[in-house]
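Extended Data, record Urease accessory protein UreF
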Amino acid sequence: MLADGRFPAGGHAHSGGLEAAVVAGRVSDPGTLEAFLRGRVATSGATAAAFAAAACAAFGGLPEAETGSFGGLPEAETGVVGEGRLGALDTEFEARTPAPALRATSRKLGRQLLRTARAIGPHPGLDALAAALPGGPHQPVALGAAAGALRLGPYAAAAAALHDAATGPATAAVRLLGLDPFAVHAVLARLASDLDRLAAAATGHADAPAAELPAYGAPSLDISAELHATWEVRLFAS
């Protein structure tokens, strides 16, 4: 559900850097789209996945074998919000997002995701997170917390983050370039094994100190985001 494009958290309005790449001529067909997506999931996507997994673990995510129920949600430990573990994760993700435009986008998406998660599955831990970070947590932190509240494990949170990193731009490519949706989904299918591998690697960081989480950079996405933010006419918010 968290990885579904119909989840009302605002992701459909963002291209994940794809619109700027299309205008720059770097993406024009399924082949160049695949190259763009592989680069994105291995850099910013992998970083987001590690933070989502860590946030889920901090929130109290359960082992994968114990997931599957939306009832009887456990209460979050009070020490993981604000100045605690989730607060540290939010601060460290901020440091790994050098572009102001991307920082603003991440917090907006995190705020919308947290609002949606609180509506579909009320949980005191999510309320505490919203109160501690009124401007909105960064999206991966919100995603991990939402996954934990829904009794998912860190691997599921990481997989959802990577799915979002790939499918968001892929969907935008259909709208921007008029690509065959079947060809685009074939690209996503070819990425499946990479996404599984990256999700497993991200899960390995779930309990690591926040400062030691990955910081895979994507300078071209940072630069493109700043340029995109100056456009007067654009189809996507980012």
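Summary. The domain at 17-228 is CATH 1.10.4190 (Urease accessory protein UreF).
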